Amino acid sequence: MASRRNNQTNRRGAAIVEFALGIALLWVLFAGVYQYGYSFFIYNRLQLSVSNAAMYASMTTYDASYPSNFVNTIKNLAVYGKVSGGTKPVVPGLTTGNIEIVTNPIAGLPTVVTIRVKNYQLPSIFARYMLRDKPRVTTLFIGQITCSTC
User: Fold this and answer.
1) Residue 150 pLDDT > 70, yes or no?
2) Domain ranges of the chain
3) Once rounded to an integer, what is the mean pLDDT over residues 23-43?
């Protein structure tokens, strides 16, 4: 009888060890799947934000007297989702400094608008992933051009 009780105690101890090893492995697996999905979610939000900003930039009015107004408006739209700016970015940690706008001007007037996210770090559980020049959208400028001081 004593040997039978001793055998059951050993089995219980082995089950606890197996459970601990199994739960650790499952936790790492679930954390990795979560991180993979979250990274895609953040990248998709960035892509949508940059695409919307590029579409707006291609059709808006460009004032040749104040090109910085054009750039600041597009940066605000890409970061905050609003032309006027805001306080909460579309993804955590994104700033207007992460948005680069290239207009490829001919005679000082834009022909093509490229908007890209530069040096943005994806937040993650295990490590930080740097996005360099991604996402990026290029569109033709088909908006109106004005000159308020000309």
Assistant:
1) no
2) 2-146
3) 90
